[in-house]
Write a structure and sequence with these properties.
Low-confidence stretches of chain B: 1-24
Number of strands of chain A: 12
Mean pLDDT of chain B: 88
Structural class of chain B: alpha/beta
Distance between the termini of chain B: 39 Å
Shape of chain B: elongated
Helix content of chain B: 25-40%
Largest interface: A-B, 35 and 41 residues
Radius of gyration of chain A: 29 Å
Oligomer: heterodimer
Helix content of chain A: 40-55%
CATH class of the largest domain in chain B: Alpha Beta
Radius of gyration of chain B: 20 Å
CATH topology of the largest domain in chain B: D-Maltodextrin-Binding Protein, domain 2
Strand content of chain B: 25-35%
Mean pLDDT of chain A: 88
Strand order of the largest sheet of chain A: 8-9-10-3-11-12
Number of helices of chain A: 19
Order of helices and strands of chain B: HHEEEEHEHEHEEHEHEHEEHHE
Number of domains of chain B: 2
Chain lengths: ~525, ~280
Amino acid sequence: MLEFLFLPFLWQGALIAVEIATFAMVLGLILGLGLALLRLTGNKFLSGVAWFYVWFVRGTPLLLQLVFIFDALPAVGITLDNFTTAVVGFALNEAAFSAEIIRGGILAVGRNQTIAAASLGMGPVLTLRRIVLPQAMRAILPGLGNQAISMIKGTSIASVIFVNELTFRSEQIVGQNFRFFAVFAATGLIYLFMTSVIALGQAALERRFDHLRERPVAEPSLSAASERAPLPDLVAEITGWDAQAAGAEPFVAGHNVQKSYGKREVLRGIDLDVRRGEVVVLMGPSGSGKSTFLRLVNHLEPVDWGEIRVGGRYVGYERGAGGLRPARNLAKARADARIGMVFQHFDLFNHLTALENVVEAPIRVYGEDATRARARGLHLLQSVGLGEHAGHLPHRMSGGQQQRVAIARALAIAPRLMLFDEPTSALDPERVGEVLAVIRSLAASGMTMLIVTHEVRFAREVADRVVFMDEGVIVEQGFPAEVLEQPKHERTRRFLRMVDAKQSHVAPEEISHAHR
Amino acid sequence: MHALLSLRASSLVGIAVAALWGAPTLACDRAALTAKYPALVGRTVRLAQDGESPPYTFRDAGNFETMRGLDNDLAVATFKCLGMKTETKIGKWSGLLPAVIAGQADVMWNNLYYTPIRAQQVDFVTYVFASTGALVKAGNPKKITALTDTCGIKGVAGLGTVEEVLLHKTSDTCVAAGKPALEIATYPDKPSGMRLVQAGRADLMLTDGGFAGNVAKTNGAEFAQAFLIKTNYKVGPGITRTFAGLQPAIADALQQIQADGTMKELMVKYGVDPSLMLPVEGFTQ
């Protein structure tokens, strides 16, 4: 057997198998990613085309595909040599299989990750490259390792189109000397060697993309001179915000805003203005449309009817002949609007450290100098009391800590408006205070804010105005003292009684459980 | 990318620019042939073979890059007579004829039987009758000496071959005579069939007579030939129709190679019964 194990004739065949598999794998993955993305677009036609491709290629034998490319295409003037045919055939096949593996990996990354990225002004390509794919890789790699190994072994069927790879060569030797056991055993060992190399490569890649594994982070350090700046000062410095500039001019102007999901009307004509520097708290039972309104303000979702202007401009709409129509570059419009958003479930990027989460948008969306962005990001983390955690991954932090990182992340884009969507609802009761403290100090900085919350005491404390919503309309609004102490409407009274009773016994998320 | 791959490919196909070593001395009037077919002189013929069908085409034991065999040597001699170069493309048997039909190769010279259906797509030049041989384990444990002895045994043949048809016919005859039917299985390539016999999974492998004779001769410790049946199938190269003038030139050259005794000499050398030889004949439909 040894005489065959070291036979150059066989190793040349192994090299051919490796070459075909490498070219085909690279091409197939590029095509597969494209197909996966097509299938994930909302566009029925594009997704249908991708589905058809996958269905057809997966459903027909590779052997026939190879013979077809090699022997039938010459009839229409396309003559490919055998090596090219094998590469093309295997790549087209790999595209179909890897498209499904990649699609599965992308779907495994929560949609909250892409929404968070969108709120930071990140475009689809940037989001895919920086946020989705790095996290999807964990789910994708084992499948692709399988594919690579089965492809290298599967190249043997290309012998029907004159590719003399390893298996065919060993059969030729057997055809000449009939010593099939010795020859095939040697061939098997050569295959085992090649597939072992792939398995090692797979293991290395899996380590590289395992974002839950602690990795050495260059410990961010501040110069000794830098003091921990209080948050309001820092915000003023970042945003260039002047609390004195607050005026009567509405900064957010919503007019007759309507939104439905299917047949369900969520917003039924909301008129809501927010002045510069004003803190407005939205309250109301689950399903009253509060969170939906927030998502319309920064155009995470489109408005069905009516309009919202922020700083005098539409976010991602253009005024056309027949009214408003979506602008072409929505991500850029979001980035230009500089609206920071904080979510109920924090939605930090799971594969990035606290500091990386904070500096992602400043560097990638706004093109800031990395060193400066990092220094400022670190200041922001310090000002929310998390300087020590800059190098930690989200899963190592408590909910309260994650939410404070999320606030720092939103502040890092120098927002002119902050949206808080139930920022404490998902927190343990003992963690609520630390997050509210940060929001409170932010309110003191003069930041314009729209906050959805059930924390009545907190609302009374920070809100300039409380807006009570129910069933898609504004029921009443006014100073916290008016709305919270002497509500005019029975619906408001009932809600406040219920919230009051619940807040003295249970965690607040139980009130709003059905919201997401 | 195509160009890049093409470059690479040329070294992959296993191109064996026909080795003259082992080929017979020139057995033809080359001057006359090249004068008759001047357009062919110096051109390259892409020869499709599978390299795993001894004694017709197989790799040389001492140097795997070199092709040997009756069909290979006849092809080399033929194209040498015509002043042509050859480039051998080696692939699975089932892919050879499709490649010639598609123009990816010019001539399949690999124990190909002439059939009218095949001749609808490629031209033929035939020079020998096919035979069917029965390969059994050395010592012929089931004492099989003719097709009529095969009732109730396990017989195997290549998938879709004339031998497979013959096995089924034989089985029907057995049943009609009140004897047990054959247990028939098929294999995708000859080495697989041989392993079935070797491992005792089959009692008899019905295959090409030349192949069976060669195996029995070179590997007598393992195999024996139980019997040989002459068939009416004519054998010869399948030739593309896109290579103008190639078919008549091959016929003319083979005629000379046959006339001067070279063909017989090669048949003896590779263990193929010379009595199977038949006058060279061309088919263009």
